[in-house]
Design a protein that fits this description.
This protein has about 300 residues and is α/β, with parallel strands linked by helices. The protein has one domain. Helices cover about 20% and strands about 25% of the residues. The chain has helices at about 1-10, 60-70, 80-85, 90-95, 125-130, 185-190, 215-230, and strands spanning about 15, 20-25, 35, 45-55, 100-110, 120, 140-145, 150, 155-165, 175-180, 240, 270, 280, 280, 290, 295, 300-305. The strands form six sheets. The protein has a seven-stranded mixed beta sheet with strand order 1-2-9-10-7-4-5, with helices on both faces. A two-stranded antiparallel ribbon has the order 3-11. The protein is globular, with a radius of gyration of 18 Å. The two termini are about 30 Å apart. The relative contact order is 0.21.
């Protein structure tokens, strides 16, 4: 029983500040109802600018780039498709009386391989990095490499989304996301189910669909935080609970990737016959990804692709 409780703690990922992929205390999950707080939602053509902080290989960058490109490639991927997963975020706009498509486009990329701010970052420095690639109508994505330590990383979170003024003195804000590569720091926390969990039954980990435990784990966190950012970009969109510690589109469905999921089991997933990798979504260029369940405003329940 104690091991099961630890596993539930591990899987209890919620989003804070505005949103944060985080491990929280064990509580009984309340009914899944994400309330709309009448604030802005991100819609239309959204640029995602990327800041690569630290060393990433060309292959690692292509895994992330292909994922972002897959989000709005309707009809160009095999089913189940990444774009079908992303379409669910448009239901939030429809429910708010603002029907609109949300097309995600890969914008400019800034490479800071020499780590200009050092390899031990404070949370406030993430905002400074994001400011290097402000997306005026979109999202800035800051990704830190496996040898970069970020305040709170592993101990409390795997990533976050927040916002900051476009310039000093302006009310207008831009949204940004940070996600770290947990390969060498805490894969059991931030790259599960591609690594054995920190707590609970030590069942064999799943094979990562792109052969990179750290980056495939990052994709899960990027996907979760992208959904949270679009549906709650400035802290007054869709969420449940306190605005300072909100439960959002993906964090409302922790540890769920396929049907029949339960604590410690990601669900019934597709398996690639050649590599043995587990996945639930197809992307461009033959990519395969594992994406988190999202809360469905139509059904008030968590939805998965498989």
């Amino acid at each position: 029983m104690f091991s099961l409780m630890k596993m539930l703690v591990f899987l209890g990922l919620v989003q804070l500040c505005l949103g944060e992929r985080r491990l929280t205390a064990l509580v009984q999950q309340p009914p899944l109802v994400l309330t709309y707080h009448k604030g802005a939602l991100l819609q239309g053509d959204l640029l995602v600018n990327v800041v690569w902080y630290g060393h990433f290989t060309a292959v690692q960058r292509s895994i992330v780039g292909d994922f972002i490109a897959s989000l709005s490639q309707k009809g160009k991927e095999k089913s189940p498709a990444v774009s079908s997963w992303w379409e669910l975020t448009e239901e939030y706009s429809a429910k708010a009386g603002r029907p609109s498509t949300t097309n995600v486009l890969l914008g400019k990329q800034v490479v800071d391989e020499k780590c200009s701010l050092g390899k031990s970052l404070k949370r406030t420095q993430i905002k400074d990095l994001a400011a290097k690639a402000v997306a005026f109508n979109g999202i800035t994505l800051v990704l830190t490499s496996k040898d970069v330590a970020v305040e709170g990383f592993c101990m409390s979170s795997c990533g976050l989304h927040d916002s900051a003024p476009l310039a000093k003195g302006l009310k207008e804000k831009f949204a940004y996301i940070w996600v770290g590569n947990s390969e060498t720091q805490c894969p059991g926390q931030c790259a599960w189910p591609f690594h054995q969990p920190l707590y609970g039954p030590q069942t064999p980990p799943l094979v990562a669909p792109n052969g990179d435990v750290g980056v495939d784990g990052m994709i899960i966190n990027i996907a979760s935080l992208l959904a949270g950012t679009v549906t709650n970009p400035f802290g007054n969109g869709y969420f449940q609970g306190a605005a300072t510690a909100p439960m959002e589109a993906a964090s409302a469905c922790p540890g769920m990737y396929g049907k029949n999921a339960y604590p410690g089991y990601a669900g019934d997933l597709l398996v690639d016959s050649a590599s043995g990798a587990s996945y639930n979504a197809n992307g461009v260029n033959g990519r395969k990804y594992l994406l988190p369940a999202l809360w469905n405003p139509k059904t008030s329940a968590c939805s998965t692709l498989v």
